[in-house]
Each structure stands twice: as C-alpha cells, then as structure tokens.
Amino acid sequence: MADARMDVLIPLILYFIVIYALGFYSMRFVTRASHREGTGFLHEYLIGDRNMGGFVLAMTLVATYLSAGSFIGGPGAAYANGLSWVFLAMSQMPTGYFTLAVLGKKFAIVARKINAVTVTDFLKERYDNTLLVVVVSLAVVFFFIAAMSAQFIGAARLIQGSVGVPYETALAFFGISVLIYTIIGGFRAVILTDTLQGIVMTIGTTMVLVAVIVAGGGVPSIIQGMLEIDPGLISPYGPNPELTSMAWVASFWILVGFAIVGLPQVATRAMGYKDSTSLKNGIIYGTVVSMILLLGMHLLGAFGRTMVADLTGDLVVPTVTTTLFPNWVAGIILAGPLAAVMSTVDSQLLLAVGAIVNDIYANLINTKVKNTAKITFISSIVIGAIVFIASFDPPELMVWLNLYANAGLISTFLWPVILGLYWKRANTAGAFASIVTGIGSYIAFDMYWARPLGFHTIVLPLILSLAAFVIATYATPKPDQRIIKKFWGI
C-alpha cells in the first residue's frame, strides 16, 4: 500500500461509498419484504417488485450488457485496427432497442400473468418439465460463477494498474464491495447502482473523448495523424482485412447484436419495468446512451493511436486518461470501466442466487416457499465466497467454464425463450434438442473448426440449434392445450 497513488484511490473510495449508500437504502425494501409470505420476498429481491421507470430501465440494461470489454478490450482493438473496428463495434448500439423490442411488452405481460421472477420461471411454465428447469438452473449457476470470476480478475487488474496496490488488495477491495451491496439490497440495489454507474460511464466517456479531440487539434488533424501512421487505420477494411470480411462482420452483428437477447441477465430487465411508458422511454434512452458510450470509447481508442505510441492496446484508456487529466480527475473517470464490470457482476450474482433459491429451492424442493430470505442470504454468501476465492487462483474447471460461459448461456436460453414466447407449437423436446445441439456443437467447433466458413464459432451452432429445435418439435406431440391457453388465452 506504500506505493498506492492516493490521488487516484481517494476518488474511487468516495465512489464506492456512494455505491454502499445505495445498497443500504435498498436494504430497507428487502428487510420489509422478508416479512412477506409466499414468493413476496423473492419478488422484491429478484425483480424489485417490477417497479423500474424508463430511465432506470435504460441505464441498467446498457450497464449490464456492456462489460469491461467495451471499455478496455474494445478501445484496445480500435487502437490497433483504427476506424474499421469503430464501425464493427457499433453493432452493439441497437442491442437495448432490440432486446426490449423482441421481448419487451409480451415478455412483461406473460411474466406478470404466470408470476415469473426469473427467465427459468418462464421456461418452467412454458415447457412444464422439471428436468429442463434443473438443467437450465445448473447452467446459470456454473456458467455465471465462472464468468464472475473472470470479471473479478479483470477489475482487480484495473485497480492494481491504475492505483498501484497489490493484486490481492485490489481484489478484496472490489470483490467485498460488490458482494455486500448486492447481497443486502438485491435487485433494487443492482438497478440503482447500475443507473449511477451508467451516468458515470456516460460522463467519463464524454469528458475523455472531448479532451482527446481538443488535445489532438480537432478531428481532421487526428485523422491526418492516423493516415501518416498507417493508411489502414482510416480504411473501412482496416490494417487486417480478415477482421472486416463479410463473414466476420455478420458474425459480430449476430454475436453482440441479436444473440444478446439470449443472455438471462439482459432478458430479466424486460420483465421488471413498471408500464408501457417506461418501456418506450427505456428504448429511447437506452439507444442514445449506448451510442454515446460505444462510439465514444471506441473513437477514443482509435484517436488515442496519435497521442501515445507502442502501447499494448488494453492500456490505451488508462494511459490517455492519466495523460490528459490530473490524477484525481482520472480516478473519477477510471471509475467508468470499473462500473461496467460491477454492473455486470452484480447482475450475474443475483441471477445465480435466483437460480438456486427461486428456480430450484422454491419451485422444486420447498414449494410452500418458506425461509426464502434466509436461504437467499446464505446462497449469496456461499456463491460470493466461491467466486472470491477462485479469483485468486482459478481452478482448471472454472477456466474451461468461463471459456464457454457466454456461448453456453446463449445456446441454453436464446431459442427456448424466443420460440417459447412467439411460437405456439414449440415444445419441451424442441427446447432440449436446441440446448444440447447448441452447447455441444459450439464446443466441437471451438475445438476442431474455430472459424467455420470464415464465421465466428457461435454462428453455426446457433443455426444448428434452431434447426434442431424445429425438427424435434415437429417430430413430437404438440404442447398441452392447458399451456396454450395459459400463454395465449385460447
């Protein structure tokens, strides 16, 4: 700690104090809800009593699907590949709009009708199969624990690099803070801190981008500088044409545009808003904030090439920030990438806890739904402890799970959720076939044919899992009329 940069650390500590305050504010709602009977506590803890307004909905949705990659890895790739990568990254911009447009109103109506507080609740009612609930719940727990461990490590490295404290200290500072406010405040704490973090990210991104443009003498001067370094940096095809091939660009749009709908931490946001006005406002605000953050951060990475040379790409944001601003301002701005990690991790933790307490315990073990508050807190502490300990030295299994976490979650949820919501003929056999084919073919492609036909590894497994869903559905009996009546009222 003797080498810690206190002028960077103190703003971060102040930021975390505000985060704690939001957690303790939300704890009042959780405490009151703990006296409710039945699923009342879980409604507050896992979905915040479905009370999100439009602005909060937009900020929590954007903050959740933007992770450290959007603030560290993405600008780093733009630093290396120039404006072509900025164009590629913009495929993420309509994700919020797309999620709310595809799932939004119908998902929210159905969720209220069947009293669902998690995506697995929806699948349980739609497909009426206990084994499917167990498989999906276990997938959520294992994949999210692995994904959280990777996020913990990334956040600790960011704090270590910018503040100058040992890795173990940075990990404890970050991990314990996230676990405390999430455990005591539940979903309400998560969306409130997401909103604060979204505001911090937006202000920080705007400040740094404007400072870079001013320091570089304006956009024309910066573009000229990029041209002199490498003409490929301002070409739509980039210095590496392989990264801008038609197959690769299409893959990117599928992976970070369309398929994001299949991530449960994103889909859950479409279940918790208050009314139709909140949904419309959420779509507008979410799209605008996404554009500011994604365009701003990736332009910062591309323009940063003219200001600092010979960097490892991932260092471009912290390096440019500490170059242009006093350390105490840089500390505030660097809270942006940290906020992106926190907003991803807290949502993953909450969903992993929901999978254990709501999807397995309340749905299958104790259907009278007693002692849920106690089981929830114990589960949260146990999962948090596992992630924290694993982040010091991740075991081989966790490294493997993290490698397949996003693809596994998308393969598990994408088609069962979308087709279950819009296709009356969709049935249990189709859902199982889709999950098995999606995860199995992704692992096989990743091991033996990582770039099939020039596409990203996830593309063909998504097509195969859709085909498997349709074939298995038509080869087996139609869903029970009771289910059709429950979801479509006919």
From TrEMBL:
Query: Known PANTHER family for this protein?
Result: SODIUM/PROLINE SYMPORTER-RELATED, SODIUM_PANTOTHENATE SYMPORTER
Name recorded for this polypeptide? Sodium/pantothenate symporter
Gene Ontology CC annotations of this record: plasma membrane
Which Gene Ontology terms describe the biological processes this protein takes part in? sodium ion export across plasma membrane
- Membrane-protein topology: Multi-pass membrane protein
Q: Annotated Gene Ontology MF terms?
A: pantothenate transmembrane transporter activity; sodium ion transmembrane transporter activity
Q: Which family does it belong to?
A: Belongs to the sodium:solute symporter (SSF) (TC 2.A.21) family.
Provide the species name: Dethiobacter alkaliphilus AHT 1
Top-level taxon in the UniProt lineage? Bacteria
> Where in the cell is the protein located?
Membrane
NCBIfam families per record: panF, sss
